[in-house]
Amino acid sequence: MNLFNQNYWYSVFSFRSVFFTIIGVFFAVLGLKGFLLPNKFIDGGVTGISVLLTGFSEIHISYSLFLINLPFILLGFRKLGSQFGMQAFLAITLLSTGMYFIEIPVITTDKVLIAMFGGLFIGFGIGCVLRGGGIIDGFDVIAQYTEKKSPFTSGEIILTLNTLMILGAAYRFGIESGMYSIMVYYTAMQTTNYVVDGFEKHTALSIVSNETRVIQQVILSKFQKGITIFKGRRGFLPDSFNTKTDCDIIMTVVTRLEIHRIQKTIRIIDPEAFIFVSNLKEMSYGESNHTQGLKSFLVLEPISETENNYAKDKTLKSDLRRYTPNY
């Protein structure tokens, strides 16, 4: 770690990182002090352990949050890099400070609302901090580290640890508190996923059709999406295994908000088209602008000159108008 490197400190304290961290910490404090803590509900992770400790001792939650997270921060420094460790240290320090100094009154006494909105706010807070490059819960670090040392995935490890904590909450605070804590945990997890992945999470859409050229041009011209053409072979059915034909497999990357419109259009063009959808964990493209990057994404084989000429044909132009519904 080069502490005298200006670019290092700029990346740690960039406007985006600081903004998301402050917003995330505020909502986490709101969820904890305004909803979960007064009612002894937990959401899992280090915050869950800290809430449990407040039930067994007089330790202030701000101290336990910082002290329990400290070993995970050091592990993050070693395994995930100094920039991540510094951003995690900043986020956890702000969270502990906020839990000590910020006073938030109890917002509601309805247990269902407490579980839903408490999970919503803390999940939103965790997601914002993750988007800023840090963490406010050290379980994310230990899960990534132990995943390499064990046959279990990080999700399975976190689920096991959180299950043990919810059982602890049920033992200390009662079965009802443990049951509501499950609701808190699920709400927080789903909210975090939406904040981190976004509502426009990208999905790979693959199409096998006899109307390949028309579908290509509709996706390119009307939906402004880049495509990849894979050479494939269709057939190989159980009752006619030797019957097979060559085909083009169209692959494009869309968001969950666009997938229904594109599928509906493809069904209008070819009702018998075979479509399959794959979730993408991550997507990246070049340094050019966003639109140009999407147009050139994974183009392994450009459309041939013959197909470009076909696109200029009047029949295809009328097809493009006819096959594109108005939304």
Topology at a glance:
Elements: H1 6-12, H2 15-39, H3 45-56, H4 61-80, H5 82-101, H6 111-131, H7 139-147, H8 154-173, H9 175-197, E1 202-208, H10 212-221, E2 227-237, E3 240-255, H11 259-269, E4 274-279, H12 290-295, H13 305-311, H14 314-322
Antiparallel strand pairs: 1-3, 1-4, 2-3
Helix pairs in contact: 2-5, 2-6, 3-4, 3-8, 4-5, 4-7, 6-9, 7-8, 8-9
Relative strand content: 5-15%
Low-confidence stretches: 288-317
Q: What's the structural domain tally?
A: 2
Strand count, sense and barrel status of the largest sheet are: 4 strands, antiparallel
In helices, the fraction of residues equals 55-70%
Q: What's the total count of β strands?
A: 4
Q: Number of helical segments?
A: 14
Q: H/E element string?
A: HHHHHHHHHEHEEHEHHH
Mean of all residue-level pLDDT scores: 79
Q: What is the alpha-carbon Rg in Å?
A: 26 Å
Class by alpha and beta content: alpha+beta
State the strand order across the main sheet.
2-3-1-4
User: Between the first and last Cα atoms, what is the distance in angstroms?
Assistant: 53 Å
The general outline is elongated
